[in-house]
């Protein structure tokens, strides 16, 4: 008798003796409706692809672990947070890290000029913690209500199915907050050489909470031990001509040969208030916190040491959400973070199903297993419940052995909130130009040249009114920045400079009340951000 482990069966476990022919009436047919084996096989085949992610569709991933230093900078981590994943030393917390591009489809080239997703699932002793970020430390917009419009503008034209430069810049020209990100993504930083030489960032601002219920604002960053490497457009084109999945190949092969990539997790910390001394709101994710004022403080190391056993079961079905936090890490009032917290988990329920958290790649580790009163739903294959005697009780509270609430803390974080309910834009808008100009000036010459070349090519594909407005924006970021784009694209700089500010937007350097902020000349001591070109 054949070994059951190697015998082909139906999904119900019945051995299959003939996998070559339909059951039919006679040799030529017709086939009959009771072809259960065929129906099961073909209907599953029809469903082998779950809906593609609207964004971050092209990705790859790996397993690994995170080890906390037990300190944040030179101080005990417990001063700032009670999250065990950041305070306990000697513990290797399992992680699953998915890298991705943003705009392209699942089979798009990994040389695309695009932000890169950097999404980590920490399977901590207190449950899952998802940190869903990007490689670049800023974003295009600061209010989640704009996100669908932004993605629609960056995606292919719904009629021609082509990505068009004019669509991208038609959106950007109305959102000066995007200029900082545009300056990053149109430079070599928009094409990382691979995932192992790439930074990661939470982008959004969170809070750390300690045992005393005290909070600080925090941003998370991941610095690659191998250093940062990016590509120019020419280098990317050469790679793409040979391999559209070079970054996936690089990561997989490195792990297989034992060259495990590693990042140092760092945090920036700021007191939990609105910081009126800054020309930008610290919750604005289109801005970076200056590292000379808010230094990167090491908190632990992240290592990737195992490739997935199956791409679809793990990488494709992995599901992340910005609302997945553990005790000691909390939400800030960042409008993008709060909008993402609804959107991400909603997306996973649509893509993978109501019980996506029962999949092994997404479920918490055994010692933090899920115990809930949630039942049923699409593809439920076990019940998230506690002791055996509670199986009849799917409600709380109960006197019949159901689940109980966890003990409450005597001292916990309570945020005071008051204000008028309404729709608001941030008033501190001067830095929409300042930080973009600073970034332009801190780039190395080869990075600045590549940025200008990319923007010049784009401006040539835009209608005149869009190109003029973009030059106006670039000139207000830095005069040399605007001048070089105008000259390269054959745009009349004086005509661009003569444009009035956008309707409803404050003039560069002013807030909505008309107060003037100091122009953002690069201050002495501001650190340069540099990279090495990929060899």
Automatic annotation (TrEMBL):
UniProt-annotated binding residues for heme: 344
Compositionally biased residues, Polar residues: 7-23
GO MF annotation, one: metal ion binding
GO aspect biological process, one term: hydrogen peroxide catabolic process
Stretch list, region Disordered: 1-27, 499-535
Taxonomic superkingdom: Bacteria
Positions of the catalytic residues: 56, 134
Record's keyword annotation contains Metal-binding: yes
EC assignment: 1.11.1.6
Role this protein plays: Decomposes hydrogen peroxide into water and oxygen; serves to protect cells from the toxic effects of hydrogen peroxide.
Designated name of the protein: Catalase
Source organism per UniProt: Agaricicola taiwanensis
């Amino acid at each position: 008798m054949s070994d059951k482990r190697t015998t082909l069966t139906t999904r119900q476990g019945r051995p299959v003796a003939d996998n070559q022919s339909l059951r039919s009436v006679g040799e030529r047919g017709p086939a009959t409706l009771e072809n259960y084996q065929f129906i099961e096989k073909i209907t599953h085949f029809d469903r082998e692809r779950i809906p593609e992610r609207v964004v971050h569709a092209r990705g790859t991933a790996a397993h690994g672990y995170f080890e906390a230093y037990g300190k944040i900078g030179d101080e005990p981590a417990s001063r700032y947070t009670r999250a065990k994943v950041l305070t306990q030393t000697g513990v290797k917390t399992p992680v699953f890290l998915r890298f991705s591009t943003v705009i392209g489809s699942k089979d798009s080239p990994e040389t695309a000029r695009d932000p890169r997703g950097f999404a980590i699932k920490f399977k901590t002793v207190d449950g899952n913690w998802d940190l869903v970020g990007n490689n670049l430390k800023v974003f295009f917009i600061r209010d989640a209500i704009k996100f669908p419009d932004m993605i629609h503008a960056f995606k292919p034209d719904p009629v021609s199915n082509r990505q068009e430069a004019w669509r991208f810049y038609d959106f950007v020209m109305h959102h000066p907050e995007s200029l900082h990100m545009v300056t990053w993504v149109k430079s070599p930083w928009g094409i990382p050489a691979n995932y192992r030489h790439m930074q990661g960032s939470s982008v959004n601002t969170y809070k750390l909470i300690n045992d005393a219920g005290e909070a600080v604002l925090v941003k998370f960053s991941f610095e690659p031990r191998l250093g940062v490497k990016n590509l120019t457009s020419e280098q990317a084109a050469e790679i793409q001509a040979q391999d559209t999945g070079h970054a996936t190949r690089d990561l997989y092969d490195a792990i297989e040969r034992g060259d495990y990539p590693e990042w140092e997790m760092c945090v920036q910390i700021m007191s939990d208030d609105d910081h009126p001394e800054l020309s930008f709101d610290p919750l604005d994710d289109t801005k970076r916190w200056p590292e000379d004022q808010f230094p990167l403080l090491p908190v632990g190391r992240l290592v990737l040491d195992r490739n997935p056993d199956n791409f679809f079961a793990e990488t494709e079905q992995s599901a992340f959400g910005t609302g997945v936090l553990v005790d000691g890490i909390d939400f800030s009032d960042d409008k993008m973070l709060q909008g993402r917290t609804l959107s991400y988990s909603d997306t996973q329920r649509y893509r993978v199903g109501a019980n996506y958290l029962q999949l092994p790649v997404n479920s918490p580790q055994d010692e933090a297993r899920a115990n809930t009163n949630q039942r049923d739903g699409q593809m439920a294959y076990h019940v998230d419940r506690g002791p055996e005697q509670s199986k009849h009780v799917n409600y709380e509270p109960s006197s019949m052995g159901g689940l109980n609430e966890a003990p409450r803390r005597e001292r916990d974080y309570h945020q005071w909130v008051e204000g008028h309910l309404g729709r608001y834009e941030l008033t501190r808008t001067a830095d929409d130009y300042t930080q973009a100009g600073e970034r332009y000036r801190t780039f190395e010459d080869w990075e600045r040249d590549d940025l200008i070349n990319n923007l010049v090519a784009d401006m040539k594909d835009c209608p005149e009114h869009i190109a003029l407005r973009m030059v106006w924006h670039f000139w207000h970021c830095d005069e040399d920045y605007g001048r070089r784009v105008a000259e390269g694209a054959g745009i009349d700089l004086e005509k661009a400079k003569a444009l009035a500010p956008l309707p409803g937007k404050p003039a560069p350097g002013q807030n909505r009340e008309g107060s003037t902020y100091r122009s953002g000349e690069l201050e002495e001591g501001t650190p340069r951000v540099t990279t090495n070109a990929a060899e």
